[in-house]
């Protein structure tokens, strides 16, 4: 890895870590935040929902903007917007200001995240790209596991008032450093978009072909699909938005194909989905994220509400999982091109083993009093599997994607992850809260683990189908050509 590539990684990965950390850290600081600013349950819900919606809705459009106008420029703008939202969040006097600030943070995350994936595609190739995606997988794993620990630790050290505020304010100096380093360390080509993606305007000049109709259709469709799963308290009627959102996404696909046939440059080239590695990999990661993120929600509910654990102790349970995920992602990134999709399937299988073992452990704790701290081990197995599956899958999924579509394709993948996460957490928490009043917290978390295991099985099946397809292709190519 060259010195320039190391600088690109340093600039890129730290802000991406911040944006992902801001998802996991909030769950622990919510109670103190709610007491501090006097927020109702519905108002505080938007601290989670507003960030997630803004993040998910913007990803593909932001990825396309980076492809056209320069990934470095969009990355730095995203970091600046994220820093502004973090500053306002940390100083918020009331729930309204906090919720608006969290939307701003989500917009910043949505701007910067696809640029990171796009720059990995642009500046890293072959084995080095696998290692770079391994580092990206490390960031994902550590951010999920360390967030609750960091949030609980800040509250323990700084108190109820400034503990939750510092969880946002800590982002500001880091973001400012990233902006300064990005200006000097990112190569000149990162600030230049794809010149071929322009069309002539009426005055003879050229302009970027941004496909505004496609942008609006996909943003509205994604919003309507995600919103019901993030705002379940609105009532059953809100789920009527889901089929409307799906219909709008279908219209978006039709529009993108039509726009391409007319000679325009669509926001997402639908030919990407004819690339089997991209289609299978994007489907696998979307399905995987329907399951896995919900683990940490139901574990926190079980430990804190069911067993009375303080926030810091509940957060520590996820620490081995984060560390093992980081180590596995690094190791897998070095050998992913050697083992290919087999490594992804093995990682999914190991993750499934950890989920099943965690369910059996809770059953043993409820039945025979076995220490619940063995979750450190079983959830660690889950983290190990995640590190072996997610970053290698990312590498293989984007391997055949043209560089000019690196940002938008990365945005498509991450949108699938965000939508999958929203749907999965909504379903797994619904399962938990339906079972808990009837059979108790132990049965509720076991039922939640059961749903997650079922989803991971489906993700594994997608991986196995892709693996079988790849082997069949290799056999065909190995056969001698008959004259």
CA-CA gap between termini: 45 Å
Annotated CATH homologous superfamily of the largest domain: MFS general substrate transporter like domains
* Strand order, largest beta sheet: 1-2
Number of strands: 2
**What is the string of SSEs from the N terminus onward?**
HHHHHHHEEHHHHHHHHHH
Strand-residue proportion:
under 5%
Give the C-level CATH assignment of the largest domain. Mainly Alpha
- The CATH architecture category of the largest domain equals Up-down Bundle
**Which oligomerization state do the chains in this entry correspond to?**
single chain
Find the CATH topology of the largest domain. Answer: Growth Hormone, Chain: A
Class per helix and strand makeup: mainly alpha
Q: Roughly how much helix do the residues carry, as a percent range?
A: over 70%
What's the average pLDDT? 87
Q: Measured on Cα atoms, how large is the radius of gyration? A: 22 Å
Instruction: List low-pLDDT spans.
Output: 195-202
């Amino acid at each position: 890895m060259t010195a320039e590539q190391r600088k690109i990684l340093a600039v890129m990965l730290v802000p991406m870590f911040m944006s992902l950390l801001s998802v996991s850290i909030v769950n622990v600081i919510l109670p103190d935040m709610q007491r501090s600013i006097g927020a109702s349950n519905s108002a505080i819900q938007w601290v989670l929902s507003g960030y997630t919606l803004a993040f998910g809705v913007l990803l593909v459009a932001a990825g396309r903007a980076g492809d056209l106008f320069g990934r470095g420029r969009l990355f730095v703008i995203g970091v600046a917007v994220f820093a502004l939202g973090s500053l306002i969040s940390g100083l918020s006097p009331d729930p309204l200001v906090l919720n608006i600030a969290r939307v701003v943070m989500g917009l910043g995350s949505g701007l910067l995240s696809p640029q990171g994936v796009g720059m990995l595609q642009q500046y890293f190739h072959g084995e080095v790209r696998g290692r770079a995606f391994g580092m990206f997988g490390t960031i994902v794993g550590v951010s999920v596991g360390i967030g609750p620990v960091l949030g609980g630790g800040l509250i323990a050290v700084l108190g109820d008032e400034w503990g939750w505020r510092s969880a946002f304010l800590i982002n500001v100096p880091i973001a400012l450093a990233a902006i300064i380093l990005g200006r000097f360390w990112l190569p000149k080509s990162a600030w230049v978009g794809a010149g071929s993606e322009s069309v002539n305007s009426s005055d003879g000049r050229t302009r970027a072909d941004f496909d505004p109709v496609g942008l609006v259709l996909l943003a509205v469709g994604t919003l309507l699909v995600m919103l019901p799963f993030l705002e379940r308290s609105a009532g059953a009627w809100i789920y009527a938005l889901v089929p409307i959102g799906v219909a709008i996404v279908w219209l978006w696909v039709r529009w993108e194909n039509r726009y391409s046939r007319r000679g325009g440059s669509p926001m997402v080239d639908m030919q990407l989905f004819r690339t089997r590695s991209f289609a299978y990999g994007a489907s696998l990661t979307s399905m995987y994220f329907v399951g896995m993120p919900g683990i940490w929600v139901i574990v926190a509910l079980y430990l804190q509400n069911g067993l009375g654990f303080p926030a810091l102790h509940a957060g520590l349970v996820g620490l081995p999982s984060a560390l093992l995920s980081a180590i596995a992602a690094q190791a897998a990134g070095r050998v992913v091109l050697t083992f290919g999709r087999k490594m992804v399937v093995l990682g999914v299988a190991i993750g499934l083993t950890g989920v099943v073992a965690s369910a059996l452990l809770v059953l043993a704790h409820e039945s025979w009093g076995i220490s619940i701290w063995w979750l450190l081990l079983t959830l660690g197995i889950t983290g190990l599997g995640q590190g072996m599956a997610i970053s290698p899958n990312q590498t293989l999924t984007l391997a055949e994607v043209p560089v000019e579509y690196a940002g938008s394709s990365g945005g498509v993948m991450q949108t699938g992850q965000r939508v999958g996460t929203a749907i999965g957490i909504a379903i797994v928490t619904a399962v938990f809260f339906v079972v808990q009043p009837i059979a108790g917290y132990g049965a509720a978390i076991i039922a939640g683990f059961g749903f997650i295991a079922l989803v991971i099985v489906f993700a594994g099946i997608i991986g196995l189908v892709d693996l079988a397809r790849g082997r069949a292709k290799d056999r065909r190519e190995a056969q001698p050509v008959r004259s």
